[in-house]
Amino acid sequence: MSVTSPERPARTKTKRVLLAAPRGYCAGVDRAVVAVEKALETYGAPVYVRKEIVHNKHVVETLRERGAIFVNETDEVPEGSRLVFSAHGVSPAVRASAVARSLDTIDATCPLVTKVHKEAVRFAKDDYDILLIGHTGHEEVEGTAGEAPEHVQIVNSPDEVDQVVVRDPDKVVWISQTTLSVDETMETVRRLREKFPSLQDPPSDDICYATQNRQVAVKKLAPECDLVIVVGSANSSNSVRLVEVALQAGATASYRVDRKVEIKDEWLEGVTTVGVTSGASVPEILVQDVITHLAEHGFGTVDEVRTATEDLMFSLPRELRAGLKAAGEEPKRPRREARKELPQA
């Protein structure tokens, strides 16, 4: 898919790459991946994981090779086994099912997702109609909606606003999936507020800092790019959104790839500037593979476009910290760099 922008800035004739920063792993993904790695190191294989720990093929394949077994539901896990909940979170029903099967669980839910769960519980307790902006079927949305199913309605896009019906227009609040397009979410909120003037906002921004930061970086480089390549898997919501953001911000074309081998030679024909970024669940090695591939095709100059610097880190799940301590290992934070983005002056 590609589009042509009617007004384009002057382009350089030198082949180059504009590399977005921030990109790749966020703190929540880092924490979840390291949690599975540490569980395998501490307890040995197999360690079961409900759904994909994060939405990235490379990460899942690598962990599977090390002994992780990925399942769709808890009833696929042998009773008494160890199960890791993914970064996307789970509903109370899933937790109850794990307890019923005597599973030793490790909760790798991203703390920012947990925050949204708590918001749903709080507003349901106060008997609000909760409008959850997100994508039906996404694990994160299923988990959040499961906290208060009788109070939550899912709104997939601005076009669905007209279909929303609430009990009391004066007791309505919106919350959102953490990995959405900021612009589209705000358009949905705008339309909801037109329909429900008393619509309340969540106490803090639900779209996670990493999602926002990666979109801001893409918006900055896209107007200069003939092509933007987003590294990320098809089921990664934030990666898919980055393609959309790049096109909306003025890139001539944008494509998502899991690995460098998916880059087609015809994409590079007549191109002088390629933007490169990656979703929040993508390890940097995959981005560097893309950079190497582009260099082999004449794009040897790489300029970083940085819009923020991240320093946020999350502690490992408490169940895992307790297990590491019992095993005589000092619990440490995830080893990879995961920094909170702060706008530069």
TrEMBL record:
InterPro entries: LytB/IspH. The active site is at E140. Binds 1 [4Fe-4S] cluster per subunit. Its EC number is 1.17.7.4. Keywords: 4Fe-4S, Iron, Iron-sulfur, Isoprene biosynthesis, Metal-binding, Oxidoreductase. (2E)-4-hydroxy-3-methylbut-2-enyl diphosphate binds at H55, H88, H138, T178, S236, S237, N238, S281. One of its GO terms (molecular function) is 4 iron, 4 sulfur cluster binding. Gene3D superfamilies: 3.40.50.11270, 4-hydroxy-3-methylbut-2-enyl diphosphate reductase, catalytic domain. [4Fe-4S] cluster binds at C26, C110, C208. Its cofactor is [4Fe-4S] cluster. Belongs to the IspH family. Catalyzes the conversion of 1-hydroxy-2-methyl-2-(E)-butenyl 4-diphosphate (HMBPP) into a mixture of isopentenyl diphosphate (IPP) and dimethylallyl diphosphate (DMAPP). Acts in the terminal step of the DOXP/MEP pathway for isoprenoid precursor biosynthesis. This is 4-hydroxy-3-methylbut-2-enyl diphosphate reductase.
